[in-house]
Amino acid sequence: MNYDIVIIGSGITGASIARELSKYKLRIAVIDKASELPAGASRANSSMIHGGFDDKPGTMKSKFCVKGNRLWHKLKDILDVHLDECGSYVCAFNDEEVKHLEKLLEQGKANGCEGLEIISGDRLREKEPNVSPDIVAALWSPEAGIINNFEAVNAMIESAKINGAELFLETQAAGLLLDDKGNIRGVSTTKGDFTAPIVINAGGVHSGEIASWAGDKSFRIIPTKGEYYLLDRTTQGFIHSFLFACPSKAGKGITVLQTAEGNLMSGPTASEQEDPEDRSTTPEGLAEVLKGARRLVPKFPVNMNITTFAGVRANTESGDFEISALKSPRGFINAAGIKSPGFTSAPAIAEYIAELIKSELADRITLSPNEKFIPERRNIPRFLYMDMAERKALAEKDPSYAQIVCRCETVTEGQVLEAIRRGARTITAVKMMTRAGTGRCQGGFCCPRVAEILSRELGIPLDEITRHGGESKLLAGKTKEPLLNRKGAVSE
Amino acid sequence: MSERIDVLIIGAGPAGVAAGIGARREGAERVVVIERDWDLGGILQQCIHPGFGLRTFKEELTGPEYMHRFIEQAHNEGVEFRTNTMVFQIDRDNNTVWTMNKERGIEALNPSAIVLTMGCRERPLGAIRIPGTRPAGIYTAGTAQRFVNMEGYMPGKRAVILGSGDIGLIMARRMIWEGAEVEGVYEVMSWPGGLRRNIAQCLDDYGIPFHLRTTVTKIHGQDRLEGVTVAEVDDHMTPIKGTERFVECDTLLLAIGLIPENELSRMAGVDIHPVTGGPVVNDLLQTSNPAIFAAGNVVIVYDLVDNVSDEGLIAGASAAKFAAGKISPNVRRIPVKGGENVRLYSPQYVTGETDATIFMRVTHPIEGACRVFAEPNLYSQRLRYARPGEMNEVHIKAEQIRNAPDLSEITIDIQPL
Fold first, then answer.
1. Residue B153 distance to chain A (closest CA, Å)
2. Average pLDDT over residues B248-269
3. Residues of B with CB below 8 A from A263's CB?
4. 20 to 30 Å CA-CA from B14: which of A7, A67, A400, A421?
5. Mean pLDDT value across residues B273-292
6. A383-464 sits in which CATH class?
7. What is the domain partition of chain B in residue ranges?
8. Interface contact A386, partner B, CB < 8 A
């Protein structure tokens, strides 16, 4: 298969790059080993759109974070993605930490952040009555927000697809293809070769390994696990924004936030590990999160927990992103080591990559504008958030919107069908595209129903449906089968 | 405006069907039961094992058989049913009930009285925060029961069951019947969650090991469940170091409790009791919203369907009376308090308008002679034992309340003799 660009990884970085490059007349392939979007760190993170005050001036992070923040506030409507423009607070518990807030304020100004302000603990408590009485001051960033990361990644990819990019799931990169001059010729994958003069490494926690295929050993990825609690949506309003403690060497520390959909959430830990795929939660990690959550919000209602989860982020030794076009092999671009504030930065990184191709790889490919580029993309209708007139109209037009599949999040059959039309093949894919199964019963009610709809619509047996691809089948054959297959069983 | 309905009932499980009967018998003209499924019966549709209706019919029926008898009665009484229809919103200011159905679309109903009979749901894994991975193969026992009994599919081939609620015990036996292995049932408490008879008939009869004071502490497996770590716990339910053991399994079934399903009740502005998780009700089964009544597992989780049906009949009758203007807004409201060994109970208020049954569960088991009572001097009954897994009852006659005009509070409790 011949392309102009192959992007390895369909996380928020790869997806944003794909959409940005689809503004040009290019044949773009995005490949990912996952069965659904998003996988990797883009699935399990704090879903924060950072204000941009936290990164040292001069770093790539500082450059892309503020710009990315501004882009997201526009993309929110263009891509129809939930972004709660709620702002964030960094909380100080003593004078020393207040000094740190002042430093962050100055740093933020240097980075180009707007509206930063240090407020008293009492003023914070007027806005967020449930925060600790021990907080003495807070740095307010009005530009910060919280995004629905599931929607955002799907939106980026769908927008890229609308404009001609192709997505290949369950397609794992296995190595690079080089021409006789030692330059990039493409990627070999578990589903065959994808040839292209340019390959972009947006492999997240695997981006170090992928870079090493190109002989680039200049950086190393340190997989760093972050564990989280996610609480029932009835906690909505317990807090209204995003609360940080003062950052330490270990990172930004345990935060407490309300997700774009109104769930209270807390995390992450930051524990380094060897295995990039180990996303298990641990007793120690969860205890650490709870301790951190209660420091900021003493009455953090952990009894309302509906799930715990962990993500693995691609930390680097330098602490900064690793973005560059290699001199050799020519045609290889790293968009690697993208961790916090990676989600925020992604649209800005994507613009930078396009510039990088124009300035450094013009001999390999010409970027001529795609006049037919359609910026807009609409989300699957969100029944939960519609007013009654909209709901009635939708149900009249399509009766499948008058059938609830997920009762916790009020997701209709129509939404599930639309998710399948847009490529969902697993229970988790439907969940991330529609929110079916994200509520308090965690799929107890809707999982069998979604499985039935997937089975019916895709024409595959119910016991072939998977939770999240691979060997994650929901069921193990028909009832009584094990008895009939047992030694000595009487056959009919 | 919308059609005239005297009593609208939400959910056609055992409570809802009985409420329909109760409302018609009390004289309500138009009684409509809304059911989201295509068939009537609620969760009893998938409870194909025997053991239902011993009290009501003096015989052992399966869930569908038990329901069938009530559904026939309801049809004979002229109860209307609307299946494949879901109530998705109740407006608290005017009690408008919003329904959806593929043929009828989205409709607003304004009944004179509402009965909430939505039942309960199972506690999910997240509620107990077990560390580890999130593979396929972890189901609540009820979801697994649906796969097996309704769809004819196996959730897996080697199961561990966490929690000893009745559905878990029933599913342990069912998994064996369908050809799976059941490695064991693990219960974090020192006593079983379900009925003794289910321990005997579902575990002991099949040689399934039952481990008290033991829980699952870790989940293993990326795609499909590969096993769990189990460990014994101390008095504070903290896992004891050194007792951990890896158990290979491809299925983990959860029977860790049921929660009354009250999303709609909350929307309707009905006060929810913090311990039962169900609406605060009086003995007429009237909630804090006088036009809204509630019955069955939506109020408090029962052990026996007979109690659910009984309560449905009462709530339906009360709703019919309300719709006819026969319940005074000034009924007495005598609070019931739970004593030392009462974990939860319902109803929380007594009116004296009707004979009252108060259901309760003890906090700690009493394995010996004990007494269940209501003070001051309203009820006393000797018991051979009292266990958290088996509900107890207090009965108070309406005339006892009427004859005590100064009565301001009732205390119920169970104490050893």
1. 4
2. 95
3. none
4. A400
5. 97
6. mainly alpha
7. 1-122+257-330, 124-256, 332-417
8. no
The model's pLDDT over A210-252, given as tens digits with 9 standing for 90+, comes to: 999 999 999 999 999 999 999 999 899 999 999 999 976 656 6
Class of the CATH domain delimited by B124-256: alpha beta
Is the separation of the CB atoms in B73 and B96 below 8 Å? no
Residue type, A477: G
Residue A172 near residue A163, CB atoms below 8 Å: no
Judged by a CB distance cut-off of 8 A, whether residue B156 touches chain A is yes
**Nearest Cα residue in chain B from A469:** B223
Q: Which fold has domain B1-122+257-330?
A: FAD/NAD(P)-binding domain (3.50.50)
Q: How far apart are the C-alpha atoms of B289 and B281, rounded to whole Å? A: 10
In this prediction, does ipTM exceed 0.95? no
Q: pLDDT (tens digit, 9 = 90+) per residue, A245-279?
A: 997 665 668 999 999 999 999 999 999 999 999 99
Q: What is the rounded average pLDDT for all residues in chain B?
A: 96
Q: Which of B129, B226, B241, B256 is the best mutation test for A, with the most CBs of A within 10 A?
A: B129
10 Å CB burial of residue A485 (0-12, 13-18, 19+) is exposed
Chosen from B106, B218, B220 to mutate, greatest number of chain A CBs within 10 A: B106
Determine which helix (DSSP H) or strand (DSSP E) holds B21, and give its type and residue range. Answer: helix B14-25
Instruction: Establish if B57 touches chain A: CB-CB under 8 angstroms.
Output: no
**Domain boundaries of chain A, sorted by first residue:** 1-84+146-220+317-379, 383-464
Residue A247 pLDDT = 77
Pick the CATH number of A1-84+146-220+317-379 from 3.40.50.2020, 3.40.50.1000, 3.50.30.30, 3.50.50.60: 3.50.50.60
Over residues B167-211, the pLDDT tens digits come to 999 999 999 999 999 999 999 999 999 989 999 999 999 999 999
Q: What pTM does this model have? A: 0.94
- A34 contact partners, CB below 8 Å, separation of at least 6: A10, A40, A169, A170, A469
Single-letter amino acid, residue B136: A
A100 an active-site residue? Answer: no
Mutate: best of A387, A475, A490, partner B, most B CBs <10 A: A475
Nearest CA distance, A89 vs chain B (angstrom): 28
**Chain A 271-290, residues with CB within 8 Å of chain B CB atoms:** 277, 279-283, 285-286
What value does the mean pLDDT take over residues B275-284? 97
Q: Decide the pairing of beta strands A404-406 and A411-412.
A: antiparallel
Strands A5-8 and A28-31: parallel
